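Structure tokens please, single chain.
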Amino acid sequence: MQKRARTSARLYSRAQILRVRCVLLAIVVASLLLCSGDVELNPGPEQDSENTDPKASSRDVGSNDDMKLMITAMFQQQQEQLMAGFNSVKDQLSSVQDALSTLGSDISDLRTRTVHLEEEFDQVYGNFQETTCTVTDMEGRLREFMSFTNEKIDKLEAYSRKDNLKFYGIQESDRETFSTCAQKVVDVLHDTVPNKVWALSDIVRAHRVGPHQKDKPRAVIVRFTRWADKMEVLTKGRNKLHERGVKVSGDLTARQREILREHRSQGLHAYYVGDRLIVEGTTQRRHDNTVSRDGASQRSPITTWSGSTRGTQRQETDRS
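Here you go.
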């Protein structure tokens, strides 16, 4: 904007200078004419002074006077126009200078504001960077905390299910209650685990899970009174239960079931023994320690299998 104003003022000044030059040229021409006052307007052939007519001479003198008056009037008119032009140029130059001064002040203010805005932007951007780093750090810590919390929740849930077994294949009747469901489990255990006299007092609770199916009974989750009774069923009654068409497994958490699905979707044979994940002969520790029924901390045994002797080298542990 400032450059455009300067260019306009420069062009206007050149135009005024050209005009002044023209006026000065006219003044010079007029002055030359004034200096040659005795020159005739239309000089004719030379005449002898003897033959000169006095009347004609007086006419020539009168014409010269008229010419001088006309040139003087024209000079004065040009001088007035020149002075008026000078005054006009002076006023316009003063206006242009005032505008340039105002424009320069505005530009200076804009520069100052721009500097302030840049400083504020740098400060805001710095705060934003610090906030971003803080948020990123908090997100990382939150993910770690959520992972730790989920691990603890899964561990507590697994511990709450440690006395549970899930039975598949026990016949289901209409309007079955918790008591009748528990009695069916006791009857099955009488036939498959004969080393113990089973009673309803050995079962805390038994109930069906899942939606009703017409051609297939739902699974039964059984919570035993004692953990030893659960191990008795797993170690000494699994094969007989299988012969009767009843399958039994541990009551896994949702996280444990998801882990098994991921491994099995990859074509791997995976299952849990206690709190250990077994994948085709390798053992993966799920928790460092387990807690016994009396609250004392104890380390669970690690059980491994080779590919060819998986069925014969199984340790007497809780297999899920």
